[in-house]
Write a structure and sequence with these properties.
alpha/beta, Rossmann fold, seven-stranded parallel beta sheet, 7 strands, about 15% strand, globular, binds NADP nicotinamide-adenine-dinucleotide phosphate
Length: about 250
């Protein structure tokens, strides 16, 4: 990576939870952070405030990662406004869950969860790859889940989406390794965010060897390492952050 230039990182779903913690971590590492969200602008503004508090800067890039045309338009506009720069780091973090047993799952809950995770992976990653390849340096980290490794009942859609992300990560890693780009996935267990709000934490921690939910910052610390230059020989990996829940 060229010294002295602004380093850009895009975090999808950076407005809340893990994405916010990752944004702050990247700010601490000196990245200018492009904070994506789909609707919660007030939350995204708070992430931006924390980025500035961490001594860096950033901006909010709202778009729906599952909307191909909208995503392409926003990323093209960014490229046009920054002809001499490129986005070095991409964290594919945006995600939702819509849990139900498959027998009762409406098609829209299948489509929505896979659309954000898998179409989102394509829509955001594909346009950013060529500039990374041209500059021979890039980092892509995607938020998978224990569900994508193990498969969780009640989450067939989410498990399929996250399993797909893991496979895409492994395949893409092999395509671009020679171009100085690493592609990895992080698989959290239960992390305390809006997504796990309302779960029976007291009951669930009984199955977690660490006996607690994790924090967004504990996930962000790993993402920070994976996007660093020191992690340049780690690629195609899926690393769990789950307190020993599934090994
Ligand atoms: P969260 O608190 O619910 O936040 C979700 C984020 O995704 C928000 O910033 C949201 O933006 C954004 N988002 C949702 N749909 C989007 C779309 N269509 N386009 C762009 N952004 C969108 O979730 P979290 O717990 O931090 O989870 C972050 C990632 O980690 C997800 O991929 C999740 O599957 C994964 N994960 C989480 C856990 C956990 O225990 N929390 C465990 C395993 C994996 P708005 O604020 O605008 O709605």
């Amino acid at each position: 990576m060229e010294k002295g230039k602004i380093k850009y990182a895009l975090v999808t779903g950076g407005s809340r939870g893990i994405g916010r913690a990752v944004s702050v971590r990247l700010a601490q590492m000196g990245f200018y952070v492009l904070v994506n969200c789909v609707s919660r602008m007030v939350e995204a503004e708070e992430t931006l405030r924390l980025i500035r508090e961490a001594g860096s800067d950033g901006e909010i890039l709202p778009f729906d990662v599952s909307d191909r045309a909208q995503t392409a338009k926003v990323l093209e506009a960014w490229k046009d406004a920054h002809p001499d720069d490129y986005i070095q780091v991409l964290v594919n973090n945006a995600g939702i869950r819509r849990d139900n047993i498959l027998a009762l799952m409406p098609a829209e809950d299948w489509d929505k969860v896979l659309g954000i995770a898998l179409d989102g992976f394509y829509n955001v990653t594909q346009p950013l790859l060529q500039p990374m390849m041209f500059h021979k340096w890039g980092r892509i980290v995607s938020l998978a889940s224990v569900s994508g490794l193990k498969g969780m009942p009640g989450q067939v859609n989410y498990s399929a989406a996250k399993g797909g992300l893991i496979a895409a990560t492994k395949a893409l890693a092999q395509e671009v390794a020679r171009k100085g780009i690493t592609v990895n996935a992080v698989a959290p267990g239960f992390i305390r965010t809006d997504m796990t709000e309302g779960l029976d934490e007291a009951e669930l921690v009984k199955a977690i060897p660490a006996h607690r939910f994790g924090t967004p910052e504990e996930v962000a610390a790993l993402v920070g390492f994976l996007v660093s230059s020191e992690a340049g020989y780690i690629t195609g990996e899926v690393i769990s952050v789950n307190g020993g829940l599934y090994t």
